[in-house]
Write a structure and sequence with these properties.
127 residues, mainly beta, Pnp Oxidase, Chain A, three-stranded antiparallel sheet, 3 helices, 10 strands, 33% strand, globular
Length: 127
């Protein structure tokens, strides 16, 4: 099956979010005009760079985080620098963040989520 803007009747629900999976969930912190902080999960979130740490997120509709970012003169696709990353000490092993111990949650699509329960390391050519 191929579909585009016109979805066939056999696809009752748009599969786009389920196909692009898993999506990491980013916790986006913003502050509104009155100085009230807001922390919210976004599955339309991605890292953009590591020096400095940069992320982007977008919102379907004007939710609190997007509204707060717009108030701060940012674009609806918000790009920002990560200024602090809290990590519990027990999640650091041999100098690395232990992803398996954290069992991160990812959004799959519709109302489906998953936790990482099988991790493996893959060497890059030349490693």
């Amino acid at each position: 099956m191929h579909y585009g803007l016109n979805r066939p009747d056999s696809l009752t629900f748009d599969p786009f979010k389920a196909i692009v999976a898993p999506r990491p969930i980013g916790w986006i912190g913003t502050v509104n005009a009155q100085g009230v902080p807001n922390l919210a999960p976004y599955s339309f979130f991605m890292p953009l760079g590591s020096e400095p740490h940069m992320i982007a997120f977008t919102s379907e509709g004007l939710k609190h985080s997007a509204s707060n970012a717009l108030h701060q003169q940012e674009r609806f696709l918000v790009i920002g620098q990560v200024v602090q990353t809290p990590i519990r000490d027990e999640y650091i092993r041999d100098g690395r963040f232990d992803t398996a111990a954290v069992a991160p949650i990812s959004r799959l699509g519709y109302r489906d989520y998953a936790t990482a329960d099988a991790l493996w390391e893959l060497q890059r050519p030349g490693d």
